Amino acid sequence: MCLSAGVFEEIVYRGFLVTFFQQIFTGIPSASTWALLTPALVFSLAHYYQGPKAVFKILVLSLLFGMIFWYSQSLLIVIILHTLVDLSGGILSIIMAKKKLAKNNEEDQFD
Q1: Environment class of residue 40 by beta-carbon count within 10 Å: exposed (0-12), middle (13-18) or buried (19+)?
Q2: Which of 23, 70, 75, 84 has fewest C-beta within 10 Å?
Q3: 74: helix, coil or strand?
Q4: How confident is the model at residue 102 (pLDDT cuts 50, 70, 90)?
Q5: Which residue spans within 26-100 are E strands per DSSP?
Q6: Can you give the pTM of this predicted structure?
Q7: pLDDT tens digits, 69-94
Q8: Which of 55, 54, 56, 78 lies closest to 65, judged by CA?
Q9: How far apart are CA 76 and CA 61, in angstroms?
């Protein structure tokens, strides 16, 4: 899942939308800023189901990924970074869930 999200989300949000909005905003002041900001906002709002704090974190990461894509002109770099972020978040979630389960099991033994 981490790999597919990293690949497909970066193709859509950075590879397509940043380029698309660059064309849409051509001729207005700060066109490149708007071309990076608009997909980042859409991407972060698409993750609203994760809660407001997650939306903010995703917005920051999305802006960072957008800038990396903009300056490097490489989707591969942001795909790798996105995959690593998702993978590390997944691993941390598993570790935390196991610790919580172990703690709950210990508490049940004393009841």
Answers
A1: buried
A2: 23
A3: coil
A4: confident
A5: none
A6: 0.84
A7: 999 999 999 999 999 999 999 999 99
A8: 78
A9: 16
